[in-house]
Amino acid sequence: MSEPVPALPIPPGSSFALMTSPDTERHATAGVHKPVVILPLGAVEQHGPHLPLGVDCWLAEAVALAAAEGQASMRVAEPFAYGSSEHHRSFSGTMSLSPQTFIAVLVDLCTCLAEDGFLPVMLNGHGGNRAAIQVAITTLGQRGIVTAGFSY
């Protein structure tokens, strides 16, 4: 019979995806308050000829990691790079989800985190996502799930 692999030390405020399933269970029940998982949101879209398509997502992830750095009760989920960018579809390279699809994805991801004992916080780096995030927060609230969303 094989021995369980010991968990790697996960620095406070680091990536949620580095954790194992048992790590998440321990983290979700370790404190008095629900631990926060920040979900960075962005878009893959044009930013003119001078910036790469993924800049919104990369900046959201950087802000999330900086906010969570050293915070034992916070983790940062893998960024969700695709958002609502229909207004940029005429530019090559833009990849967009319909608002309905984007809302459904946000509701599903936040529901998973909440059901596992976490407080999901959406951190948005793309202006076109704002309305969909508000709809997702309202939908989640109607289901009894507390969440938050911020744009920088």
Helix content: 25-40%
SSE order, one letter for each helix or strand: HEHEHEHE
CATH hierarchy: architecture: 3-Layer(aba) Sandwich
* Lateral strand order in the biggest sheet: 2-1-3-4
Characterization of the model:
The protein contains 4 helices and 4 strands, in the order αβαβαβαβ. The chain is α/β, with parallel strands linked by helices and 152 residues long. It has a single domain, classed as 3-Layer(aba) Sandwich (Rossmann fold), CATH 3.40.50. Strands 2-1-3-4 form a 4-stranded parallel β-sheet. Helix 2 links the parallel strand 1 and strand 2. Helix 3 crosses helix 4. The longest helix is centred in the last third of the chain and has 17 residues. It is globular and about 50 Å long. The model has no long low-confidence stretch (mean pLDDT 91).
Supply database-style keywords.
4-stranded parallel sheet, single chain, alpha/beta, 152 residues, Rossmann fold, 4 helices
